Amino acid sequence: MFDPTAARFHFQLRKASIDDFEFAEALTRNNMSGYYRRHHLVWRGDLFLVSWRESENFILESDGEAVGVLRVTEEGDSLHIRDVQIAEGHRGQGAGTYLLDMSHRWARARGLKELQLRVFVDNPAAQLYQRMGYRLAGPRLAQLGAIRHMARRV
């Protein structure tokens, strides 16, 4: 598994503030716009704001530049990964793996048993999630249609 402490990349993860909301919402909306179009969904900034307020939000930086967003919530014995967003031009460099590994470490440190996430069926990130040990979860509403629910043990 990817060890972020051994990485040659200069990733830093910091807790987001409300001042980071505009960056996070724009990055998420832009990254997801193609999926929303293809699957006939409508972006709702108001719902993103509600989710932002309910989540633990982090900004990923590389050499001092904001390049990504991680949003998680703890529910029962699970850590739910709400968003892993990487800016174009910074993908394929280990950033997503770094964020997933950090999430796994947090879940373990919190004594949680599982990590969960949802992904569009046509999102290439699903391959990364599978390499990181995520598998399709049991029957859930998100199993239907364009979105798959995935989980892994801690």
From TrEMBL:
Molecular function terms from GO: acyltransferase activity, transferring groups other than amino-acyl groups
Gene Ontology CC: ribosome
Signal peptide start-end: none
Keywords: Acyltransferase, Ribonucleoprotein, Ribosomal protein, Transferase
Gene3D superfamilies (UniProt xref): 3.40.630.30
rRNA processing recorded as keyword: no
Domain N-acetyltransferase stretches: 11-154
InterPro entries, per the entry: Acyl_CoA_acyltransferase (IPR016181), Bact_Acetyltransf (IPR050832), GNAT_dom (IPR000182)
Matching PANTHER family: AMINOALKYLPHOSPHONATE N-ACETYLTRANSFERASE-RELATED, AMINOALKYLPHOSPHONATE N-ACETYLTRANSFERASE-RELATED-RELATED
Protein name per UniProt: Ribosomal protein S18 acetylase RimI
Organism: Paraburkholderia megapolitana
